[in-house]
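A brief tutorial aside. Many learners find it easier to grasp structure tokens once they have seen a single protein encoded end to end. The record that follows does exactly this for C-Jun-amino-terminal kinase-interacting protein 3. Read the sequence first, then the structure, and try to relate runs of similar tokens to stretches of the chain.
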Amino acid sequence: MIEIDEVVYQDDYGSGTVMSERVSGLANSIYREFERLIHSYDEEVVKELMPLVVNVLENLDAVLTENQEHEVELELLKEDNEQLITQYEREKALRKQAEE
């Protein structure tokens, strides 16, 4: 019988990676459905589909991780932008004072 109890998967580089909770929850739901299909019909029913679904879940997890990294980077850039705007306004006010 096919087992997906582990939340750890191998990525292309051979290192073990822990899936996000979101993807892990989806994987568990899909696993239960595969188990139901195997119990009702046979293992052959999901034999070809299982690797495709696992690949999709791994890619989804990678995209979610990348998205989280981009969100963190965006927040840092927003903070930098706010600091630059503040500095610009300060310099602008100082120049105006110096001209007067």
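Self-check: Confidence is low (pLDDT under 50) at residues 1-15. If you spotted this yourself, you are ready for the next section.
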